[in-house]
Amino acid sequence: MTLSEWEKHYLLSGTTLFSLSSSMYFDEDGDLAHEFYEEEEVVLPPGGGRGGGGGGGGERRRREMRRVSHRRLTPQGEVPYTHPRLHVDFPIIMYQG
Prior knowledge:
about 100 residues, three-stranded antiparallel sheet, rod-shaped
């Protein structure tokens, strides 16, 4: 049995994947990653250190890492595969004899 070009295209269109929807993002600098973090300086109120003793010096400064909001990032979009892949739900047994 031989298949026409249309039948081949119809069979392959639902079974093979040619691209992947990426879960990665670009930031303002053009770097690519799943998540981005930025360092932020936090000013703590004076006193209230360990033990709640009050007293002590002035304000304290600390650095924290904050996750960058996805609103400031650009999604990577569709990424083509180097080789087409079979869809995971395609029911076929592959055998190489």
